[in-house]
């Protein structure tokens, strides 16, 4: 897959309409092998006042590199490369199982058994509603990944149940900031200790940062961002619990989907 994604010929077949930036959908082909992909050209990025450094595409690639180095397996394979509209990020498309919900907003009585409610709200007509998510090991991994990458955009729609049975996260353009910006719908384990397998992955990430991960990341994020990433990992290892919302700024991305 890495060769195909990095060197294959990209053909654009559509545009994701609910996307806020130029998020294109297409195929990538090499030696007769084809895969579906997302392509986000840097040129199509809307400038963001709160993320002035680097590019969204570079942050998405950083998120993938962190996910791989730790063994989180959260982010579908993602590369930075040339494409039909210039340099951009290219990511493997995840086929999703639309029957399998992982995050939802529903009436209190309809929260699926075993799920965790994270926010009580009111619907359009004032009816009570709950933002809730499944209580799964894969989502605990994703929540830890979001803490270390400082993900400011873990919406419900950025949590995908793959038809391969895995759980994937997408849209990591708003991570790695030096300020605390964790905004997520996955608040279900606040104060709880990271499960042992998740902690192992964070330790693996720390070791990778000591080895050559910093080098690879420095192509995509600033040195300050890199130092802050290391600090977040150290802090989580020193106190291996899911953190609370910081109290500064919104804790949940809006819209939540
Ligand atoms: N790699 C992917 N595989 C499957 N679906 C994806 C993938 N990337 C994005 N999507 C879908 O497309 C939507 C829009 O893409 P996203 O990356 O969120 O774009 P934007 O940065 O413009 O918000 C996502 O919410 C998700 O449903
Ligand atoms: Mg998005």
Detailed description of the structure:
27% of the residues lie in helices and 21% in strands. By secondary structure, it is of the alpha+beta class. The protein has one domain (2-97, 135-238): Transferase(Phosphotransferase), domain 1. A 5-stranded antiparallel β-sheet has the order 1-2-3-5-4. A hairpin with a 2-residue loop joins strand 2 and strand 3. It is globular, with a radius of gyration of 18 Å. The model has no long low-confidence stretch (mean pLDDT 95). It binds adenosine-5'-diphosphate (ADP) and magnesium ion. The site of magnesium ion has 2 residues, from loops. Residues 158, 171 line the site of magnesium ion.
Which fold name fills CATH's third level, the topology? Transferase(Phosphotransferase), domain 1
Measured between the Cα atoms of the first and last residue, the distance is 29 Å
Hetero ligands: adenosine-5'-diphosphate, magnesium ion
Helix count equals 6
User: What is the chain-wise order of helices and strands?
Assistant: HEEEHEEEEEHEEHHH
Name the features.
257 residues; alpha+beta; Transferase(Phosphotransferase), domain 1; five-stranded antiparallel sheet; three-stranded antiparallel sheet; 6 helices; binds magnesium ion
Summarize the helices and strands and which ones pair or pack:
Elements: H1 2-7, E1 9-15, E2 24-30, E3 33-41, H2 56-70, E4 78-81, E5 88-92, E6 103-106, E7 116-122, E8 128-133, H3 137-149, E9 159-161, E10 167-169, H4 196-210, H5 213-217, H6 223-238
Helix pairs in contact: 2-4, 4-6
The protein binds adenosine-5'-diphosphate (ADP) and magnesium ion.
């Amino acid at each position: 897959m890495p060769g195909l994604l990095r060197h294959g010929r990209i053909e654009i077949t559509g545009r994701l309409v609910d996307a806020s930036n130029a998020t294109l959908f297409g195929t990538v082909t090499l030696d007769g092998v084809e895969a579906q992909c997302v392509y986000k050209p840097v040129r199509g990025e809307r400038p963001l006042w709160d993320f002035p450094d680097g590019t969204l595409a570079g942050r998405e690639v950083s998120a993938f590199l962190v996910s791989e180095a730790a063994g989180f397996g959260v982010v579908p394979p993602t590369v930075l490369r040339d494409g039909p509209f210039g340099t951009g990020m290219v990511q493997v498309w995840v086929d999703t199982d639309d029957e399998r919900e992982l995050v939802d907003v529903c009436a209190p009585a309809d929260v699926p058994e075993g799920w965790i409610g994270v926010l009580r709200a009111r619907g359009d007509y004032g009816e009570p509603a709950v933002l809730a998510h499944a209580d799964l090991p894969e989502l605990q991994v994703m929540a830890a990944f979001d803490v270390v990458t400082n993900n400011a955009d873990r919406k419900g729609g950025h949590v995908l149940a793959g038809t391969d049975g895995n759980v994937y996260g997408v849209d990591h353009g708003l991570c790695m900031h030096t300020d605390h910006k964790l905004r997520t719908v996955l608040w279900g384990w606040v104060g709880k200790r990271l499960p042992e397998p998740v902690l192992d992955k964070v330790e693996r990430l720390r070791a990778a940062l000591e080895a050559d991960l910093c080098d690879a990341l420095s192509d995509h994020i600033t040195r300050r961002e890199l130092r802050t990433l290391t600090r977040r990992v150290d802090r989580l290892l020193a106190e291996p619990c899911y953190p609370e919302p910081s109290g500064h700024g919104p804790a949940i991305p809006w819209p939540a989907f």
